[in-house]
Amino acid sequence: MFKKILSVLMVVAMVACLFTACGGNEDAGKTDATTFKIGAIGPTTGDAAIYGQAVMNAAQLAVDEINAAGGINGAQIEFKPADDEHNAEKSVNAYNDLKDWGMQILMGTVTSTPCIAVVEETHNDNMFMLTPSGSAVDCIRYDNAFRVCFSDPNQGLASADYIAAQKLGTKIAVIYNSSDAYSSGIYEKFMAEAKVKNLNVVAEGAFTADSNKDFTVQLQQAKSAGADLLFLPIYYQEASLILAQADKMGYDPAVFGVDGMDGILTVENFDTALAEGVMLLTPFAADAEDKLTQDFVTAYKAKYNEVPNQFAADAYDAIYIIKAAIEKSGATPDMSVSDLCNAIKGAMTQITVDGVTGLGMTWTADGEPNKAPKGMKIQNGAYVAM
Amino acid sequence: MKQGSRLSNMKKSTKTNGITYLMLLVAFIVVQIFTATDSMTNLIKGLLVPACIYIIMAVSLNLTVGILGELSLGHAGFMCVGAFASSFFSVCMRDVITSEWVRFPLAIIIGGVVAALFGFIVGIPVLRLRGDYLAIVTLAFGEIIKNLMNVLYVGLDSNGFHFSMKGTTDLGMEADGKVIVKGALGITGTPRDSTFVVAFILVVITVFVVLNVVNSRQGRAIMSIRDNRIAAESIGINITKYKLMAFVVSAFFAGIAGVLYSHNIATLTATTNNFGYNMSIMVLVYVVLGGIGNIRGSIIAAVILTVLPELLREFSDYRMLVYSLVLIFMMLFSSSPAMVNFREKLSLKGKNKSKKEKGVA
After folding, report:
1. Closest CA to B70 of B139, B148, B146
2. Selected residue of A113, A187, A195 to mutate for chain B interface (largest B Cβ count, 10 A)
3. Which residues does B346 contact at the CB level (< 8 Å), separation at least 6?
4. Which structural domain range is residue B104 located in?
5. Is the pTM of the predicted complex or chain greater than 0.90?
6. Measured between CB atoms, which of A93, A100, A136 is closest to B185?
């Protein structure tokens, strides 16, 4: 009996240690009055790690640049990334951890589903939040949240309008990922808008994350229906497989993608000749000629030895947007999280930012950006504006 | 209680169970003290409810794996069912029943009962299988549930509910309708009703029910099936009935864990990480590390393995690497023969007793 009591006591001691150890961190969480603490949440491990890593790299790059140039209104930025494994539950944990660190502004989260969970938390704390790439509508359902990228419905709408205006196809087939919020969000709005614009959608093929290797069924369906335009509101990894499999079948429709298609030229073991003629609507192209993009791409390549993708561009802009908003509002690092949020929130609707994902970006109070998507076409292995 | 030997036997189980309850009580008091003095970090505060959720998952799975002796790899499927059913209920009733003290208990019951119902339906054909086959079928069940939830669209308007497997446009709703379940986007806007106190009460209920089942007539029947199916059958134990009983109770509590999960974060989607095989395996890891059949072990393992990866955030990118190393060391610690001997020496007096206790603690 004695030993049992002892074991219980030891468990108590262990639990107590656990909590006191964490309690000790509390002091470190106090706001440092001279620097802005910006936290970022995204999947740096797991299936979606490629997006999270791009975001964290680009954000770090932007932060370093700003700090080297003297910071925001003279105040340096402290930046801390946190991993959420593309999991809503882990994302909230990451958010809590960053709060313990003393985060004042959140740049995140990278993916949509965790973003919807985290926006609930930031709303409760009234913390300013700018998501680089959370594109689902609910990601910014509260007034403290803004985003850099387009929302999913906006992309669907823009795609349908663009296809109708440019008369890109008479019979359209759509292949989308029904298990992905991004893809199905675009798909739904596209279908609704297609009806309005009298686009003739002859085939719809869906796949899920568990069956994203073989697309012959969906392609056969599109081919039999005689589709001459293939709309792919999906990410480039799957798009590259679809292009390769279509080629094998001897099926050669025109292909139209959205911003997730960006990156298709970098897929390993993918014959980029197959991507010739692929059209995509994207706010960012790594090959663009303007100075901003060129500088960003060069700096990113020099630091991380790879070409930045859409996500990296969004994150790079996000940091500069936060900087612009803070400068506009005249906020200082010693303000409380809530005051800071109110100040930046007010400034967001007044600023105009030229970034790598668009020139003259402005925001509405509901958090949506105003910028024009660029129609791009792949020619000779490079993006060309349409 | 009639005979001496039985009395001492009961006493032993009461004693071990007492320690389990005492441990829970102490943990609860410690948390309350830290909450009252406000000396807990946000991270730990945020982990309280998830820890309770995984305790319930681990304890309920232990009933199937440890007590019934059947390997189930679809436990997250039941959690998923419970989560979606209760979330659906809460979102629909949000404006009708405004008091969370009425709505949340109802949601808990609904989530549990629906999961139990699925456990029953799945259990009837599945429990005819044994060993690897059962594991494979339960694995498939979990995946089916997850994929079904990903294509399910449900909307509500003045004409009632609309269901579809195609998309929101296919629901054919009136203008006043709202879509509640949006396929891959899942359910958003579930009221945040899960609190640590509620979650803790549910943990106690789960542990209480499972421990009592184990120490009851039914529990002995269930364990006899595990130990020797033919012998159990020959003395007239209704194998199907008892297997199903354990399976359904296990599913019921997994459903309740799902309710807590869905009412703890604002978005509910069925992905591999939260309701797929990843989660099922994760819970199985809790059970195995805590000791198969050992309820107290499951509780401790679930808490440690939920909190640990978050405390390892210091290591940033190497977090998961460190975590897996810790898992390996824990496994070695809990089951390598040398360590087992050491622990037995530490905690048990006689050799006889250790033999007896190996069955179920």
Report:
1. B139
2. A113
3. A3
4. 4-357
5. no
6. A136
Taking a C-beta distance cutoff of 8 angstroms, is the pair A377, A279 a contact?
yes
Q: Nearest by CB to B265, which of A7, A15, A92?
A: A92
Interface touch A83/B44, C-beta < 8 Å: no
Q: What CATH number should be reported for the domain whose range is A33-150+290-371?
A: 3.40.50.2300
Tens digit of pLDDT for each residue in B149-195? 888 888 888 878 888 877 777 777 777 778 888 887 888 888 888 99
By the CB < 8 Å criterion, does A124 face chain B? no
Four-way CATH pick for A153-282: 3.40.50.2300, 1.10.3720.10, 3.40.20.10, 3.40.605.10: 3.40.50.2300
Domain residue spans of chain A: 33-150+290-371, 153-282
Query: Nearest CA of chain A to the CA of B16: how many Å?
Result: 9
Q: How many domains does chain B have?
A: 1
Q: Which residues contact B148 (CB under 8 A, 6 or more apart)?
A: none
CB contact under 8 A, B41 and A119: no
Provide Rg for chain A, Cα atoms.
Answer: 23
On whether any CB of chain B is under 8 Å from the CB of A209, the answer is: yes
Tens-place pLDDT, residues A210-233: 788 899 999 999 999 999 999 999
**Listed residue (B94, B28, B79) closest to B280, CA to CA:** B79
CATH of the domain at B284: 1.10.3470
Instruction: Give the ipTM of the model, two decimals please.
Output: 0.84
